Amino acid sequence: MSEPVVLKGFGKGIAVILDNSCDFDTICDYFKQKIVNGKNFFSGYEIPIQFIGRRLNSYELQKLIDIMKTFGGVHDIIFPWDEINFHHLVPMSNESDEKKMLFSTSSKDAKIYKGTLRSGQVVKSDTDIIIIGDVNPGAEVISANNIIILGALRGVAHAGASGNKDAVVFAIEMNPVQIRIANIIARAPDEQNQEQERVPEVAYVEDDTIVIKPVSQF
Could you tell me which NCBIfam families the record lists for this protein (predicted)? Predict the structure, then answer.
């Protein structure tokens, strides 16, 4: 690429093409300058974004979102979900590409919410939800489809609230008070091994029961 960051419009949204050969700090510098120069174009309540050309882990994605909100006046960001590979968001172990997770839907957009949800806070959406942060006890996330938590789930997550039993709940650290998928409920055990190593896990429905497994076994 001639530039580390290239912006292109698509419909009402923006495609951000990132050079995979550049270090991430260089990407951030160029991206910030692009946002500053085009601030009037970016400012608005919510804007669809696609990041193309390189895989982004959760830290990198959050850094780019911060730049857009700080220097571009963007209030909310929508990711067209059919363009996002799950392993672009979460750094995985050295597995083959076939074993890396991929969640996609063809007709819905994913909503991104940045920050920790504290007791009493509720986030609802009729689309997939990605939480960049923790969900603390007393907080609740409700989605008609999938719930992706790039942090710790310690509160309540209700995926597939529309009745979709194919929905899943993913968390970097899975320690919920309660998980619901469609009309099926699972509660956390009374006693948990605090010394057990935490690994990213996925909750899904199998034989009308909610099963929680490490990502590597899903």
Answer: minC
